Amino acid sequence: MTTRDEPTDSEETAAATGSADAGEPTHEPPSDAATDGGTAAAEADAAEETTEAAATRTPTTGAESVIAALEAAGAETAFGVQGGAIMPVYDALYASSVHHVTMAHEQGAAHAADAYGVVSGETGVCLATSGPGATNLVTGIADASMDSDALLALTGQVPTELVGNDAFQETDTIGVTAPVTKHNYFASGTDTVGDTVGEAFAYAETGRPGPTLVDLPKDVTLGETDRTPKPPEPPAGAEVDPEADPDAVERAARVIEDAERPLCLFGGGVIKSDAADQACRFAHDHGIPVTTTMPGIGSFPENDPLSLSWAGMHGTGYANMAITHTDCLIAVGTRFDDRLTGGIETFAPEAEVIHIDIDPAEISKNVHADHPLIGDAGSVLEQLIAAIDDDPDAEAWRDRCADWKEEYPMTYAMPEDEPLKPQFVVEAFDEATDDDTIVTTGVGQHQMWAAQFWTYTEPRTWVSSHGLGTMGYGVPAAVGARLAADTAGDTDRDVVCFDGDGSFLMTIQELSVAVREDLDITFAVLNNEYIGMVRQWQDAFFEGRHMASEYEWMPEFDKLAEAFGAKGWAVSEYDAVADTIEAALAYDGPSVIDFRIDPAENVYPMVPSGGANGKFALSEEQL
Amino acid sequence: MSGADDPTPNKPDPGSTHRDTRGKNADRPGMPGPAPEERPHPEGRRNSQGIRIDPAVEAEHEPRRATISALVEDEPGVLSRVSGLVSRRQFNIESLTVGPTTVEGHSRITMVVEESDPGIDQIEKQLAKLKPVISVGELHDDAVSAELVLLKVRGEEPDKVHAITEMYGGQTLDAGPRTITVQLTGDEQKIDDAIDAFEQFGIIEIARTGQTALSRGDTQTVPGEEPGTSGEPTSHATDVGETTQQPYHDP
Ligand SMILES: Cc1ncc(C[n+]2csc(CCOP(=O)(O)OP(=O)(O)O)c2C)c(N)n1
């Protein structure tokens, strides 16, 4: 088990030695510096400007004001990698209360910060230097953008006067990240850089969450200032009215009352809005069956009788039947991604669509909304609950949904002559852990099995890469999730990462972080020695030509884990599964189980890309 | 049970390549349940714009030409954010103009686009999401619009060029022995006609600004826009939500 309660090195240094004894004068807490060097007038000014939220000390440099802004915003943890252009900011972190976790790779920093944000409900923070540091962050920022995760990226930049000259480690970070951020900022002045960082932090989590970035030229962070940053606030006009138009709510309520086959579709927005309670109440009060999207997993307990689990390409047969036959789809916080809808022509083709979303641009972007309700998921669900007078007469429909659950059970065969089944491993882990266990994944078949064969009952327990589908998300996300749980004091909560062998190899280096930080994480590699999902598609759609999907050779992950300083096991027999899981969960620190699973196992059900949800295949033959 | 139990070095096994998983899987029964063709399927359909349709009618929204005006904060990079958005989302754009307003720090962007109603709705909403965008709106058909064109033609027939220039209310900016450059302004129809007329002289070069436009009379050009003077900000109206839904509500 891991705690971050013990002081970090920097805190220790500051506390134990005091500023006077600190090795380097630059590491003195800024308050002392201000007291020593500041004029009385500057102090008075600073005192005036200091708000309750802001840090107690006055910054002396742009970099310190960056960190003061983070502290004022409530950031407790940051993930990153050092480098030339960001060094002033790191130097200011030396005396900060923000706990910094050095990652092995900047992509890992972005994913860790993203997952930290998903689990904690707060903006995750990552840092990188200019040039390659910033470009390495891009995958993680794009991932956060697609999944609407609140993330703040701080990147170093070459000094302002060198910008545009192709200076060493210069990249047009603003240009590169503009399409994958909600907004990005080029910090233009030492006095305002703290305000900018505060705004970027707040903006990331305002309205529809998403990533923001502040590019920090070195002269701006090194420059002197005595301004305490303003309290973090989103830009003007960014705040959204949480309530939907009451007339539209009334009209939607009538449609729901009159529906014969109503269905809820809860998306990731329900979780982001912390609206799982309202979502639950809404479904229960009116007896409406529930499907979720993949990002919406955890928004509604999957063991609830009304739950049909998640819909879409590899969703359950019953969810896809229900979504195909509903006459009234109440979609909350979803953007109708094509992996959910399949072919748009056949998506919920007979449903009047009530679409609740905080982002007006999602209304009728992919699926036409007959009743758009623009607002915060929780608030609008409350409005709807209040507006519905009579429950829809949906008993026959509920029965039909229950029949589908019987007709299309999520089962798998375990013939004796076939190797270990991954589904069994996922179920065994679910059984061995508590409901609040956090699951992270890479991308591929293993991700689908982890989503299908684990019963999620709580929000913020499913942490995965949905929209971007980033292989390699699992390991750094587990690091971020662990830190979030520990920071919240939930050191007993388990964190399990299901990874594919291919995905694991993409970010395996972050194991070094888990070991160094002594993070209690269990990594379960569902190892099929294949780029399994690609192999499945090749078998189905490319006549079995396994071009570049076979690894042919894989390192031994258990030994690799040991070399990293983690605990390692390899398992290929059913008998060993439960005991090894128990041992790994009991191990106090990072552990890796290399499950040698059946390389031929496929993920079903499957709606082929662009196909009709109701025509999901249950075997390769049906594709 | 640790992998360390296995003494054989972990080397590639040539026999393991090209395992025929396809054959294996084709034989496997898969998950239980009725096959796709044994299931009920609804009759209804949506069109490619996600709108429920009567399959017999098959109506889709045809593209039309629309003028969109956006009031933006004049910060560095705002134009690249707008143009990046347009190209990334594959919006069909004919022209884009930008210039300052009476309010310091505010600019107006005018875009002429060719899109279906849902596409136009998306452009407005996606633009409104950009942080520097203060307000966005589509202009009505009766809006006043104009474009400025510079035309360089061969100078062999100066009298005729002059006459045509007069006819379209243009101005001669430069006249030399070999070339004449004229300036024309007007709405799209007038500019098109004028260019046709100048064609006879042989157009050497042309530069066009693209249409810029304001709404007619008292109507605000973008929602919430107020007459501003320098230093007095126009109002922040970012909500283009529910109202823009209406035009294509009923397919
Ligand atoms: C960064 C990245 N590169 C490529 C892909 C395409 N891709 C999707 S699934 C997949 C296979 C993943 O293999 P593995 O991690 O071993 O998982 P498995 O499907 O075998 O469970 C690939 C290559 C991707 N999603 N992300």
UniProtKB/TrEMBL annotation, chain A:
Keywords linked to the UniProt accession: Amino-acid biosynthesis, Branched-chain amino acid biosynthesis, Magnesium, Metal-binding, Thiamine pyrophosphate, Transferase
Family: Belongs to the TPP enzyme family.
Amino acid composition bias (Low complexity), ranges on this chain: 32-44, 52-61
Organism ancestry: Archaea, Methanobacteriati, Methanobacteriota, Stenosarchaea group, Halobacteria
Pfam family membership, one: TPP_enzyme_N
Segments forming domain Thiamine pyrophosphate enzyme N-terminal TPP-binding: 61-173
Cofactor: binding details: Binds 1 thiamine pyrophosphate per subunit. Binds 1 Mg(2+) ion per subunit.
Keyword DNA-binding: no
Cofactor: thiamine diphosphate; Mg(2+)
Keyword presence, Transmembrane helix: no
CDD domains: TPP_AHAS (cd02015), TPP_PYR_POX_like (cd07035)
Location of the Thiamine pyrophosphate enzyme central domain: 249-384
Protein name: Acetolactate synthase
Biochemical pathway: Amino-acid biosynthesis; L-valine biosynthesis; L-valine from pyruvate: step 1/4; Amino-acid biosynthesis; L-isoleucine biosynthesis; L-isoleucine from 2-oxobutanoate: step 1/4
Sequence segments annotated as region (Disordered): 1-61, 206-248
The EC number(s) this enzyme carries: 2.2.1.6
An example molecular function term from Gene Ontology annotations: thiamine pyrophosphate binding
Organism: Halopenitus malekzadehii
Catalytic activity: 2 pyruvate + H(+) = (2S)-2-acetolactate + CO2
Coiled coil (residue ranges): none
Domain Thiamine pyrophosphate enzyme TPP-binding: 442-595
BP GO annotations: isoleucine biosynthetic process; L-valine biosynthetic process; sulfur compound biosynthetic process
Domain of life: Archaea
InterPro entries assigned to the protein according to its UniProt record, in alphabetical order: Acetolactate_synth_lsu (IPR012846), AHAS_TPP (IPR039368), DHS-like_NAD/FAD-binding_dom (IPR029035), THDP-binding (IPR029061), Thiamin_PyroP_enz_cen_dom (IPR012000), Thiamin_PyroP_enz_TPP-bd_dom (IPR012001), TPP_enz (IPR045229), TPP_enzyme_TPP-bd (IPR011766)
GO CC annotation: acetolactate synthase complex
TrEMBL record, chain B:
Domain named ACT: residues: 67-144
This protein's GO CC annotations: cytosol
GO biological process, one term: L-valine biosynthetic process
Polar residues: compositionally biased ranges: 212-222, 231-251
Annotated signal sequence range: none
Extent of Basic and acidic residues compositional bias: 16-27, 36-46
Keywords tagged on the record: Amino-acid biosynthesis, Branched-chain amino acid biosynthesis
One Pfam assignment: ACT_AHAS_ss
InterPro entries found in the cross-reference section: Acetalactate_synth_ssu, Acetolactate_synth/TF_NikR_C, Acetolactate_synth_ssu_C, ACT-like_dom_sf, ACT_dom, AHAS_ACT, AHAS_small-like_ACT
NCBIfam families in UniProt: acolac_sm (TIGR00119), PRK11895.1 (NF008864)
Family (UniProt): Belongs to the acetolactate synthase small subunit family.
Protein name: Acetolactate synthase, small subunit
Organism: Halopenitus malekzadehii
Origin organism lineage: Archaea, Methanobacteriati, Methanobacteriota, Stenosarchaea group, Halobacteria
